[in-house]
User: Fold Protein MgtC from Lysobacter korlensis.
Amino acid sequence: MDWTQQLTIVFATGYAMLLGGVIGVERELRNRPAGFRTHMLVAGASSLLLGIGMLWVDDSRQATQTVRIASDPLRLIEAVIAGVAFIGAGTIFSHGRADNITGITTAASLLMVAVIGIAAGLNYFVLSFAATILTLAVLTVLRLLDRRLRDRAGLRREHDPEG
Assistant:
């Protein structure tokens, strides 16, 4: 087992946590149910799981030269997404009426930081950074644009579940 590969995974995990934390700060500032630490942990766990999986497959192939090990890397990604779906569902709340649901954007941001963590875990650092910037643009710039358009259209904003 090569320790430099493990250090690369540690770096990727830290990088993913940093990017997830940036998105988490925005959610924290909006007083959402999942904030800074949660987003960091989801991104970091996603990256680490992918890194461990890739390392294990590589180590297994080296250890058993005579036995062919088949691995589907998409199963790791599916496992990450399933876990995040469970966490994301916990951030969605319904309050009385059917049109009074909160937390959907936070659940989506958790899914996005998981995917950012997956990208970092696969060492796609530029892609994960760009995805972070795009996510922040959606959470901030588009929120402001949405508010302006609603104000111009005369739509009420008495309940802004994702504000």
The helical segments are 3-29, 36-63, 73-89, 104-121, 125-153.
